[in-house]
Q: What sequence folds into this?
C-alpha cells in the first residue's frame, strides 16, 4: 500500500514572499536502528516566523525537531535519509560539525534545566565555552532582557538558578540559549510544565523573539499553536507502518490560520477538534 501523502498547503495567508526559507526538509526519513520513526517528511521553515509541530503523542514531533540541529546523533542507531538543509547546507552530510551547528540552532527543552550554578553563570556558560570575546556582563544583561527576566533577577545574579520559579527557570534557559547568539531556536513543549501565567509570558516572549529569530515549537496545546504560530505542521502515525512500528508522517503543512479554519486533511480536522489524539 502506498503511504499517505501529506497535504501541503501554501495558500490562504502564507509567509510573506520575502520570508527566506531557513530549514528545508525533502523526503526526510529517520530511523532508530531498524525502526522507521519518520517517513518522507517534506516542509520548509520560514525565517522570522514561528512554526508549530502538532500531533498525537508518539508521532515523531520531537524526533523531527531534533533532526534540525542533529540532536538525534546522540541516540545510538539513529540515522537520517533524504534531504535536510539549513541555509543551503546539507545537514545529513557526515562532515557537518554538529557542535557548531547547535550554536546556530539552539534548543529549549520541555522541562526547565538550569545548571546548578548562579543565574549569571547559567547565561554566561555557553558563550564562555564557545570562546566569546566580548563584554560578558553586557551579554548576560542583554540575554536576560531579551528573555524578559532581567528586571526579576538583576539584584540576585549570584543566586542559584535553581532558586527561581519554574517559569523563571524556563526563561533563564531561553536566555542561556540566546547568549550563544543562534539563528534558530527549537522549543520542545517549553510550556508543558508551566502554570498559565508563566505560559503566557513565554508565549509573549516568543512573539517578541521572532523579530530576530526563527522559532520551531512542538506543542500539544492546540490553543497555543493557534495563538503563537504562523505555520503549522500536523503529524500523525502512518497507518501503513508495518510490523507494529510507530512511524510518523506529516499529513498537512500550512499557515496556522488556514489549518485551524479550513484544514484540508480529515486527519488534521479530527485531531485539532479533539476527535482523535
A:
Amino acid at each position: 500500500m502506498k503511504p499517505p501523502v501529506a497535504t501541503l498547503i501554501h495558500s490562504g495567508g502564507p509567509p510573506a514572499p520575502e520570508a527566506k526559507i531557513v530549514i528545508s526538509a525533502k523526503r526526510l526519513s529517520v530511523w532508530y536502528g531498524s525502526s522507521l520513526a519518520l517517513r518522507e517528511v517534506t516542509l520548509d521553515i520560514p525565517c522570522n516566523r514561528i512554526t508549530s509541530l502538532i500531533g498525537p503523542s508518539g508521532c515523531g514531533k520531537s524526533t523531527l525537531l531534533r533532526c534540525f540541529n542533529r540532536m538525534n546523533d546522540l541516540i545510538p542507531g539513529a540515522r537520517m535519509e533524504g534531504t535536510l538543509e539549513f541555509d543551503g547546507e546539507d545537514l545529513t552530510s557526515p562532515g557537518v560539525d554538529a557542535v557548531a551547528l547547535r550554536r546556530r540552532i539552539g534548543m529549549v527543552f520541555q522541562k526547565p534545566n538550569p545548571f546548578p550554578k548562579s543565574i549569571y553563570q547559567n547565561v554566561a556558560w555557553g558563550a564562555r565555552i564557545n570562546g566569546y570575546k566580548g563584554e560578558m556582563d553586557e551579554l548576560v544583561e542583554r540575554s536576560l532582557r531579551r528573555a524578559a527576566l532581567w528586571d526579576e533577577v538583576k539584584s540576585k545574579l549570584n543566586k542559584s538558578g535553581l532558586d527561581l520559579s519554574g517559569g523563571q527557570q524556563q526563561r533563564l534557559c531561553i536566555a542561556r540559549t540566546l547568549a550563544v547568539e543562534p539563528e534558530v531556536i527549537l522549543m520542545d513543549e517549553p510550556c508543558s510544565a508551566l502554570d498559565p501565567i508563566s505560559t503566557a509570558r513565554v508565549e509573549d516572549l516568543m512573539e517578541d523573539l521572532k523579530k530576530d529569530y526563527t522559532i520551531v515549537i512542538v506543542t500539544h496545546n492546540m490553543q497555543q499553536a493557534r495563538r503563537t504560530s504562523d505555520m503549522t505542521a500536523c503529524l500523525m502515525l502512518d497507518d501503513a507502518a508495518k510490523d507494529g512500528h510507530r512511524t510518523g508522517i506529516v499529513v498537512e503543512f500550512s499557515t496556522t490560520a488556514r489549518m485551524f479554519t479550513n484544514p484540508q486533511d480529515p486527519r488534521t480536522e479530527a485531531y485539532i477538534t479533539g476527535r482523535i489524539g
Remarks:
- Residues 1-17 have pLDDT under 50 and may be disordered.
- The radius of gyration is 19 Å.
